[in-house]
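User: Fold this; tokens only.

Assistant: Input:
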Amino acid sequence: MQQTDVPTLIGHLTEIHGDQWIATLLPEGQHRHSIHVEGQKILVGQPGSYVVVKHHGYQLLGLITRTWQDELPPAPTGSRPIRRRVSLVPLGEIVDKTRFDRGVNHFPVTGTEVHVAEPKHLATLFSRYQHSGMELGRLSANKDLGVYLNPSPLFGRHLAILGQSGAGKSWTVASLIQHTIKAMPRAHMVLLDLHGEGEASHPRQMRSHPETS
């Protein structure tokens, strides 16, 4: 079977539910375990990776959450073909190639193409809030892309940072405070550190901003 001439195509949708879609990856002979896009190696079907579903001019961004394979009935040659499948969660739509809108307004149909997400697609996820200057880190799927948040709604509601011992909760809180002060230097913050973990984890950084104490 000939290799597909679409470098980013990895499969097609076979089941569509409201909050979960199932895609079947390209069959043996066309399936690729990895794809290189703009110098980056992307593993096909890896949980946590992003894909783009292209449907009649619409680009829908999804996140792969599960992958598995089924053995099909034996072929005439005696071999047992493998069918690889992935489950993905739809995140939203890419509008005008530059803006990401959460939620799906145009649902696809079975047979719709599924492609690996390119860096230009992932950049739309956080480009809307880039002007805020509140960059908390880098996207795990692409280390070159910064993750930006909108500080206004972030602090306009309750926020909890949860994790087991040693997971980095104190470090996360300290980092969040530092980035907040950098993005909003006139912000007023009150920090109640009952166990002194902030001072123990980041003594120099915390003392350099007396307005956080």
